[in-house]
Amino acid sequence: MIGNRYVVQDAQRESKTVSSRLIVALVIVAALALVLGLRLAHLQVFKYRHFAMLSEDNRVRIEPVSPTRGIIFDRQGEILAQNLPVFSLEVIPEVVDDMDAMIASLRRIVDISDEDLHAFRLAMKSARRSESVPLRLRLEDRERARFEVNRHLFPGVNVRAWLARHYPFGSVGAHVIGYVGRIDDRDLRRIDVNAYRGQSRIGKIGIERSYEDLLRGRVGYEHVETDVRGRKLQVLERRDPVPGQNLFLSIDIRLQKAAEEMLEGHKGAVVAIEPATGFVLAMASAPRFDLNLFSSGTVDADAYLALSQSPDRPLFHRAISGQYPPGSTVKPFLGLAGLDRGLEHARSKAWCRGWLTLPGTTRRYRDWRAGGHGIVGVEEAIEQSCDVYFYVLAHSLGIDSMHEYLTEFGFGEPTGIRLGSEGSGLVPSREWKRRTHGQGWYPGETLITGIGQGFMLATPLQLASATATVANRGERLRPQLIHRIISAQKSGHAEFMQAQRLSPMRAYKEDDWDEIIEAMVGVMHDRRGTAYEAGVGFPWKVASKTGTAQVYSIGQDEEYDEGSIDKRLHDHALFVAFAPADDPKISVAVVIENGGSGGAVAAPVAAGVIREWLSRPPPKPSPQVTEEAMPLARVSTIRDPNRIESSSASSVLVDDDRLISGGVRIPTP
Amino acid sequence: MMWRSITITGRGGSLFSRLPFPRELRLDMPLLSGVVLLVFFGLGVLYSSSGQDEALVLRQFIRFIVGLMAMLVLAHIRPERLHYLIPVIYVGCLLLLVGVLFIGDVAQGARRWLRVGPVGIQPSELAKLAVPLMVTYFVCAGSVPVRATRVAIAGLLIAVPVAMIMAQPDLGTSMLVAVAGAFVLFFAGMSRVLIALLGAIALAAMPLLWSMMHDYQRQRILTLLNPQDDPLGAGYHIIQSTIAIGSGGLYGKGWLNGTQSRLDFLPERSTDFIFAVISEEFGLLGVLLLLVIYFSVIGRGLFIAYHAQETFGRILAGALTLTFFCYVFVNIGMVSGILPVVGIPLPLISYGGTSMVTLMAGFGIMMSIHTHRRLLSA
């Protein structure tokens, strides 16, 4: 029985068993198939948007394309700051089979230092294998040529060009033009990071900084399809960057150069302004520094340290930030105030015997000329720079009134020129002294304010600007550095800057102006004038005023003896002037630190600047004519600045910086 | 009434009977056409996923031809004759598995390959066929429904190769081999009580299994639960494949246009994750079409099993079909993120030779079962 059960195969029963199990299997299969179908429908229909977005994120990378920075020209179209291609050697690691062997043979052609190699290996670690890593920056032309000849031997090694800021005039106008540098933490705090995508340079000082928003342009974008290793496959979409605007400064670089050469060997500043417009023609600060030291991207740390720690402070922009006691250069302004007040002695003559004491005191306020000037009116007092006359005048005006008049000429507050770190100068007042010193005002302080000593401070720019106001007979214009802006977008559309009128000052009588200007003419052209030497044989009539500002207070009975005093405590030499006196084309302020006498040291510098400017044909204002005066290559840049981009893109890669992985990349020919 | 006049109904008989395939080829046309459709669809997808590598597609095609010949040969062997061969195949497979453990090639930390001249074979793939064959052979030697004692012996027959594959280690394949053997027992009428009992034991053994797993295997299971946990490590595969599937949408991005695969975001895209490429490029519609073909093959397999005359044929055809379904389900399940990532290729489509040949051989056996039926006199 039992054996039978094993032997006999019940076909019927077996068939039924298997069939029922097959049906169960079918049901299970169908159920699981449904599960799969639902899962796929869930992913592909209900969550489609979500995953489509993720897939797009995977695939597309948005890369910034940096704009070309605007070019800075002087008013005649000379290039002051431009973008030049520099070449570096880069390696794509994944293409190179044997890196060490390749570098070894590359070293026979191109100079690669151990530092270069170290930096390269470091950069290679953090870069993708498909990314180009710089091996050597700033190739010499000869090296580049040698490499190009042999480039077939070096697959994966490329010469890459990018644009670096270059300043053709080097140190001329350095403080005004400024330079660009790497964006640092301090910059990051004040900028919109989005506007700087793909860029690593920013204007640090001067025009480069204060007109950064115009010069920078607008960053463009590329939507790039990339694979999982970040290799760029194709550009899907591109919004071109907008190149920065080209700025034409009101500065004339030749005049600037002349001014700086005359300042050579001194510390000091020269500011020249066109009175009719407020345009700054020259703004020199000495000592100066070479802008290209900063633009290279690899600032030599030692060189920078030397500059920033030099006791002469070459990085300090003396023309706008330097604040000096104006000395006797305030006299024309105060003389005008006296005339305006109709003060008794301003109209008549005063007796200068070489010193003055205030009633009831014994202290003597001395005149610079020990013997005194004798009987002087306002004209003689300005010509000969009589101190006693102005002590008396100051005493009659009072400090409050002087504060009011001097402030109207723009002293004591920034001129508002768009250039960083402008000093405001200082015009003292009772209120100011109480606030800052916690003391009352002493009458003696009024006297020395009358000769521009004591608390009063002015920047060379303020002096030039106030002098221009005299030249304009009271019309105040804000000093400006930008002459015109040529849009890079609207193919050469030029925007000319208008003169900016400042709040008008009180109306002085024409006679008063005549009298003061006549007095100023006497400074250089009258035999007794303090700058007569500088005026001998000078072909134009110049209205001017000398100033010699004390740095070191000498005692009541001491004599000022240059030889015995440290050079840094020597008097500052100052000079303000405009010319021609009857049709002013230029107004100048010169400050030479510790230079000594204004008439002897500062006046010849100012005279030189005036001569340089007036002796050449006046610049023609229309832009067309200006263009004709320029070399042909530059004309094209101005008519259609976009062409700078397109033409350079065909020969070099326009790429503002190393950091950018975007940018136009075209293999170098 | 109108529609009836325009409807032309089939003229009875098989459509395929009119095709120029002689009956002597012993091929089952519905099954074969399903298989061929899948293979050719797969070749097209491979062309795209491999980055238009014609050589790779050609290699896969050659494997298909080899598989086709294996199918042709096996379709000609009468099921009764096959009986005698089964123990030989099984023992041979065991020997190869032993061989792998000692002289196999190491790839990605596992010994799975045996190199014979220029050809590499994966004995574990062979086991997918050998084990159900052997178990069916053994079960049919006794009575059906199978009794518990014989289930135990059959379990041993399954466990030996499974353990060896697990030792390679290849968890996915070993599980599938085990499942293939279990399907045989299922069709052999193993009692429901026993199934429930074994299921309970299996559940109870989970912690033990967990403790025996390699770290990376555990990680895969954890990853399934929360792929975002380690998006660039363990979760990367599954995140990228769900992105590929989801971004395909209803209509897909088009052939050769799948960005996830073309740009290398999708790993293993010619092998285990090829389903994601299909989903991305052909969308839900394409995927559903693929599933329809798969399930028509599975349906035909179950049909063959149902209509087989011998118990041996019925059990074997059923088990092979269900195993095939298991591949499809596990692969799509893992690629779409509902099952842990185990190395199971998408049958007939993923790039890989041994799998293709054993699958085709399996279909050959099923065709043999179907075409060697003794025609009953009506």
Verbal overview:
The complex is a heterodimer of chains A (669) and B (378). Among the domains of chain A are: 64-249 and 640-651, Penicillin-binding protein 2a (Domain 2) (Alpha-Beta Complex), CATH 3.90.1310; 317-473 and 508-614, 3-Layer(aba) Sandwich (Beta-lactamase). Chain A contains 28 helices and 21 strands. Chain A is elongated, with a radius of gyration of 37 Å. Chain A is of the alpha+beta class and 669 residues long. In chain A, the strands form 6 sheets. In chain A, strands 2, 3, 4, 5, 10, 17 and 18 form a 7-stranded mixed sheet that branches. A 5-stranded antiparallel sheet of chain A has the order 12-11-21-20-19. In chain A, helix 11 packs antiparallel against helix 25 (598-614) and helix 15 (331-341) crosses helix 18. Chain B is mainly alpha-helical and 378 residues long. Chain B has one domain. Chain B has a 3-stranded antiparallel sheet. In chain B, strand 2 (110-116) and strand 3 (119-121) form a beta hairpin. Classes of the chains: A alpha+beta (669), B mainly alpha (378). At the A-B interface, helix 2 and helix 3 of A face helix 10, helix 11, helix 12 and helix 13 of B.
